[in-house]
Inverse folding.
């Protein structure tokens, strides 16, 4: 007789007792969190709640005052891990004087992509964000929304095991936002772990779990449906406010 029990997979992200302060102000206060393989995890919180600081610690771009961060079993920060995750920042890190193709070639070299594989991935990533027709255009001629889409293409370029996206759909029109989410859900289905921040409540509803962050503390972590049930709310926005989110006062 075969058992239905399956051994749990080790978490892709392990955060334990994470704290970070700037100028005497505590930005993150004792964050502990596990994110599993193939999970789409959303971080919600008002401006100044610590979301971007947490993302920077998660990617090894910053170092905590105390606590630990492990990604795919490796303690961060660790330079060698950059090949295993894709990162899209809030601010676009692009070379405006270069074309989109030249930007992608540069980042492909950092990821160790070359030859036909590199060209294949450039076309695939630009296809996802609907920018293939603008591949040879200087980035300086791109609109703000196009720059966001190019930044996402760069994050997808090397097919990372983990995608870390800081407000990936800001400035993107609704039709393309829907298309990008279709691709994110397909990536999740294929086993890619995705961590993202968002202010868009219908995007939060698409996540497997959500972490509500306020004043540097996680006030709740659960699935959207469980958070709504726990708070007696009809929408994730109502649950967010009831469980310690909402606007800073």
């Amino acid at each position: 007789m075969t058992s239905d029990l399956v051994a749990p997979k080790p978490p892709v992200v392990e955060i334990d007792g994470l704290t970070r302060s700037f100028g005497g102000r505590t930005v993150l206060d004792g964050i502990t969190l596990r994110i599993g393989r193939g999970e789409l995890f959303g971080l919600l919180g008002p401006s100044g709640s610590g979301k971007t600081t947490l993302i920077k610690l998660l990617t090894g771009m910053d170092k905590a005052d105390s606590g630990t961060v492990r990604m795919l079993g490796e303690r961060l920060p660790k330079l060698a891990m950059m090949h295993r995750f894709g990162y899209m920042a809030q601010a676009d890190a692009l070379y405006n004087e270069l074309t989109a193709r030249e930007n992608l070639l540069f980042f492909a070299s950092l990821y160790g992509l070359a030859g036909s594989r590199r060209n294949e991935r450039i076309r695939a990533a630009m296809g996802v964000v609907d920018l293939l027709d603008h591949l040879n255009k200087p980035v300086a001629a791109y609109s703000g929304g196009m720059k966001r889409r190019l930044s996402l293409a760069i994050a997808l370029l090397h097919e990372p095991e983990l995608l870390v996206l800081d407000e990936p759909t800001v400035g993107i029109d609704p039709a393309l936002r829907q298309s990008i989410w279709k691709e994110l859900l397909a990536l999740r289905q294929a086993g890619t772990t995705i961590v993202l921040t968002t202010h868009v409540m219908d995007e939060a509803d698409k996540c497997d779990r959500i972490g509500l962050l306020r004043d540097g503390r996680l006030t709740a972590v659960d699935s959207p449906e469980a958070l709504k049930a726990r708070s007696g709310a009809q929408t994730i926005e109502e649950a967010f406010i009831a469980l310690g989110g909402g606007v800073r006062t």
User: Anything to note?
Assistant: The radius of gyration is 19 Å.
